[in-house]
Every structure is written in C-alpha cells, then in structure tokens.
Write a structure and sequence with these properties.
Elements (H helix, E strand, L loop, with lengths): L27 E2 L8 E3 L21 E3 L8 E10 L9 H8 L2 H9 L5 E12 L15 H15 L10 E6 L12 E11 L2 E9 L9 H9 L38 H7 L7 E3 L4 E6 L16 E7 L2 E8 L12 E8 L9 E4 L15 H4 L8 E3 L6 E7 L5 E6 L1
Parallel strand pairs: 4-5, 4-6, 6-8, 9-11
Antiparallel strand pairs: 1-7, 2-3, 7-8, 10-17, 11-12, 12-13, 13-14, 15-16, 16-17
C-alpha cells in the first residue's frame, strides 16, 4: 500500500470540473510469483498483451490460477488479532464496519455486478502469544519477523477458523496496540503455501490500519489478491511524490483517489469486460463510442464499449477509455477521455500503467487530488491529443445524450 497521505492544497474553484498442518513457512515473500497452470482469459484477441513472469503482469491472454478470479461470489474471513501488551479498545464488529459493506460495494460496482465479495468476520478477538512489539511491524518488514507473525496468527486462529471455507483471508490487528504500524498493511505471498485445514494458503492480507482506516485501503489490498499490481511510483530514496504514474485514476494507484474505479484494462483482465466491450483499433482512422467505465450496465444490456486499444509493440499498448462522474468515480472533478500506456513487462510498482496527460501545462482539483498535474488528464469534447512517440492521434468528437464519448482514433 502507498504511505498514509492527507490530500490537500489551495482551493482553485472553477478549475475544470492450524490443528492445521503448517507444512512450509520457508521464505515468506511479498513479491513471489507462483508458477501454475494458466487459464485462457475471456476476450483474448489481437490487442491483448501476453502475460509475462513479472509480478502481477498486466498481460491478459491467460489467467494465473494461483489467484482466485473474481467472476463469482468469493468468501472472505476476517480474523481479529489482539496482543498481550494492549487491551483492545474497539470491537471486532466496529472494525468490520470500517471495511464492509464499503469494500464489497466497491467491487460490486466495479464489476457491474459480476463479482460479489462476502465477508465472514469472526465475532471475537484471537489472542496472539507475543506482545505486538515483538514482531517488528513496519513497511519493509523483515521476512523472519513477518513469518513469525503469520505462523503465530494461523496457529492461534486455527482452532476456531476453518480456513477451507474461504477464498480470501484477512488478518486484522488491534489498531491501537503499540507495535502496530499502519504502513505495514499489505498482502503477503508465500513462495510455498501454508496448509491449514487441508487448504493451501497462498497469500494473506495483513491489516494494520488505524480506526477508522484510510478510505478504500482494503479494496486496494484485495486487488492484489486478484493479481492486480501497485500502480504508484515508490521513490528510490523514500522521498518525493508516489502518485506520478496514474494520479487519482485507479485504486491500485491510491486509495485516496477521487476517481478510484479500476482501469478498463484491469476490468478486462479480471473478466468483467468481454471481447464485445473492447475495440481493437485498426490501422487508419476509426470511430469509437466509449461508455464511461464507472457507469452501471442497463438491465438486459451489455453496457456498450468501454475500452479501445492500440497495440504499439509486442509488450505495450495505448488504452483509451471514458471517465465520468458516476459509481466509484462519483467524486471526480473532471470528466472526459483518459489515455494511458500499458506494458506487460514491468512488475508491480514498476509503472505497468502510466496515464498520459492531455493537459500537461495545467493542473486541477488542488483541494482534493492526490496529484493535481494528472487530475485534468482526460480530454474533453473538441480536444485532440497525439500520443508522444507514437503515430496515434485521438480526437474527442462528441458526447452523446447518454453520456458516451465519440472518439476518432487515427493510427
């Protein structure tokens, strides 16, 4: 997860609107890729990118079966962990309501109702055997300390939790315990899975958030459970801006974003868009009618085209989608046609998606945006944009009464 931030700035009104068997706890690694059989992804076609060995690769010709695919109802258990050095001041029920139903609602909207995440919160605290300060919780957590924490947590929870019933596991720590650090919240992947109740645990979401937590933080972490990458830019020296790649435009970039709905490319990867909703742009000039991605699907309808894609190389593409003020994007302060570059080789956190700024000389939404230079990235009706370094010209020709954008693309 990106570090805790408080968006701010000056107001510019008017700017464009274990009885389990722990068979293996050897190297616990947050960035491991599990080699498994693949499954063909729906809508695979000429403008898809091939999935690579990069962690959370955005290639989508196949699905990595090491991850649950969110195209059905998935069940998630929430286990609440207390420590002997602190008496919990909040209840499991209160912490449950910090995250649900908001997280389920986020995915219900993002998936157009194709995916339902059902939480199963435990009703009482599970006591950990060591003080919270014994585990060394922090953002760059020592693998040995993290392994100790997870080993103790699974062993403590196993007598009362049947892990075989669940697709997703959340371990939620007492937020006020002295050793708990909110920056340590992350998904931990295992090089070799744990086995509990006859079930392989390939990853666990470890939650150390304050009460109340950052908005959409669990949606971000759950996205990793579905093989989505971090889209933020982590400065090598730990200083500087984390939001330069995608700004507000996807929850995998920032949980604070004004328009945090998942990019259409992510929705395509996850199976929420099919081939009929993706236009592979041919050579020459073509017209495309793009429905804003956060708008719901009319009853009995397909929802229309949500993404246009221009292949620019074996491992890269330009994606074009519409963003409007609806659904998960209801707090956006700008609308229009968003253009971004997708690459299949960069790993999570390495810039697999980069939003292209349609207005590089201006900024917007200083009072709310996580990165104002990209807040006004979308193109409005009448505007034209040439993709830097590519012979791709994008013109927003019109907006229909229904809110869809007519886009002319020349390649």
């Amino acid at each position: 997860m990106p570090p805790h931030q408080t968006p701010g700035g000056v107001d510019h009104p008017g700017i464009r609107s274990a009885a389990a068997v722990l068979t293996s706890m050897a190297a616990v690694a947050a960035m491991s890729l599990v080699a498994t059989p693949t499954a063909a992804a729906s809508g695979a076609g000429p403008c898809t990118l091939t999935r690579t060995a990069a962690h959370h690769s955005l290639g989508l010709d196949t699905w990595n079966r090491a991850y649950p695919r969110p195209v059905r109802t998935l069940n998630a258990v929430m286990v609440f962990l207390s420590f002997p050095d602190h008496r919990a001041a909040v209840t499991p029920d209160e912490l449950t309501h910090d995250y649900f139903p908001a997280t389920s609602d986020f995915f219900e909207r993002a998936s157009y109702g194709r995916f339902r995440l059902v939480p199963h919160p435990q009703k009482r605290w599970i006591a950990m055997p060591k003080p919270s300060t014994a585990y060394g919780m922090q953002r760059d957590w020592a693998p040995e300390a993290r392994a100790s924490y997870l080993r103790d947590a699974v062993a403590a929870a196993d007598p009362t939790v049947d892990f075989g019933k669940y697709d997703v596991v959340y371990f939620v720590a007492d937020p006020n315990a002295p050793g708990v650090d909110s920056d340590a919240t992350k998904v931990v992947n295992f090089d070799r899975p744990l086995v509990a109740d006859g079930t392989e645990l390939r990853r666990i979401v470890t939650v150390f958030e304050r009460h109340p937590p950052d908005r959409n933080v669990l949606a971000h972490e759950t996205g990793h459970v579905f093989d989505l990458p971090d889209l933020y830019h982590r400065p090598t020296d730990g200083k500087g801006d984390w939001d330069t790649y995608v700004g507000d435009w996807d929850v995998m970039g920032s949980q604070f974003g004004m328009a945090p709905d998942l990019f259409a490319w992510h929705k395509w990867k996850l199976g929420w868009l099919d081939a009929s909703q993706v236009d592979c742009v041919p050579s020459g000039t073509s017209l495309h009618t793009l429905q804003p991605i956060a708008e719901g699907v009319p009853r009995g309808g397909s929802g229309g085209t949500r993404l246009a894609v221009v292949r620019t190389g074996p491992g890269s593409a330009i994606a074009i989608e519409a963003r409007g003020s609806a659904g998960n994007d209801g707090d956006t302060c700008t609308e229009g046609v968003l253009v971004y570059r997708v690459r299949n080789e960069p790993a999570s956190g390495g810039g697999p998606i980069e939003v292209l700024d349609g207005h590089p000389r201006t900024e917007a939404c200083w009072d709310r945006s996580v990165y104002p230079p990209l807040a006004d990235a979308p193109l409005e009706v009448g505007e034209t944009f040439t993709v830097p370094g590519e012979r791709i010209r994008i013109e927003v020709a019109d907006r229909t009464p229904s809110g869809a954008y007519t886009v002319k693309i020349t390649t």
